[in-house]
Design brief:
The chain is α/β, with parallel strands linked by helices and 209 residues long. It is built from 9 helices and 7 strands. It has a single domain (8-176), classed as 3-Layer(aba) Sandwich (Rossmann fold), CATH 3.40.50.620. It has helices at residues 21-33, 58-69, 80-83, 90-101, 113-116, 125-131, 145-150, 177-185, 196-205; strands at residues 8-14, 38-43, 75-77, 106-112, 133-138, 154-155, 165-169. A 7-stranded parallel beta sheet has the order 3-2-1-4-5-7-6, with helices on both faces. Helix 1 (21-33) links the parallel strand 1 (8-14) and strand 2 (38-43). Helix 4 packs parallel to helix 6 (125-131). The structure holds NADP nicotinamide-adenine-dinucleotide phosphate. Residues 12-15, 23, 26, 44, 47-50, 88-90, 110-112, 114-115, 118, 122-123, 137, 173, 176-178 line the site of NADP nicotinamide-adenine-dinucleotide phosphate (NAP).
Length: 209
């Protein structure tokens, strides 16, 4: 699809350490619910709050994301945050994407609700909220009250006026990267939690042991 014809893009922001079926279901659901022309997976290069958490290197996280999304024609993976030196700030990414696709292209930045809860600590949070719509993905039963207290304009997509933060409940988000890493380190199976190619890539490279 030519860039000028892209009017609504989803950006899946995350560490993807590793990517799993919860992320893929989230992206596909957002694509359908918000009539997105495409969803760009954006593995963070240097997550701002995670300098000491020992994430897998950006290149390996990027490669797993490519493997996981390869068969979906509406999914792309970007190296934008991986290639940008310094911490991966969402506002820089949103601005760079507006530079590529034009100011009139609506950007829906999709990430986990726990990450959205931290938005006041992000770089230029008010500009993030004015330059894109945030989609906070949660598993059903997640307590939204903290999000609603923090950001009065949180809403479900059915509301007429478009809130700054939309919430999407995804049952598959019971899967988590933390649990997958723990399973690998304990020698437990991760088959059916991640795409087969990702599972094989993790095994071949000995990640998370
Ligand atoms: P995180 O703390 O690793 O994740 C928080 C929670 O959200 C985890 O439960 C995580 O589950 C889930 N999650 C993360 N990405 C998701 C996605 N795309 N879809 C569904 N669930 C998701 O958060 P993070 O990955 O470091 O950061 C999330 C995004 O926010 C990134 O794009 C990051 O660049 C951005 N961010 C920006 C700033 C800033 O601009 N200053 C600061 C912080 C974060 P899993 O572990 O299973 O993925």
């Amino acid at each position: 699809m030519g860039r000028l014809r892209v009017k609504r893009i989803g950006v899946m922001g995350g560490t993807f350490d590793p990517i799993h079926y919860g992320h893929l279901v989230t992206a596909e659901e957002a694509r359908q619910q918000f009539a997105l022309d495409l969803v760009i997976f954006m593995p963070s290069g240097h997550p701002p709050h995670k300098e000491d958490r020992g994430n897998l290197d950006p290149e390996s996280r990027y490669l797993m994301t490519v493997i996981a999304t390869a068969s979906n024609p509406s999914f792309q993976v970007s190296r934008m945050e991986i290639n940008r030196p310094g911490p991966s700030y969402t506002i820089d990414t949103v601005r760079e994407l507006h530079g590529i696709y034009g100011k009139n292209t609506a950007i829906f930045f999709i990430t986990g609700a726990d990450a959205v809860l931290e938005i006041l600590t992000w770089k230029e949070p008010e500009n993030v909220l004015s330059e894109c719509t945030l989609i906070a993905a949660t598993r059903p039963g997640y307590n939204l009250s903290r999000l609603e207290e923090l950001l009065p304009e949180v809403g479900k997509e059915e509301r007429g006026d478009v809130p700054k933060v939309l919430v999407m409940e995804i049952p598959a988000l019971a899967i988590s990267s933390t649990d997958i890493r723990r399973r690998v380190s304990e020698g437990r199976p991760i088959r059916y939690l991640v795409p087969e190619g990702v599972r094989e890539f993790i095994e071949k490279n000995g990640f998370y042991r």
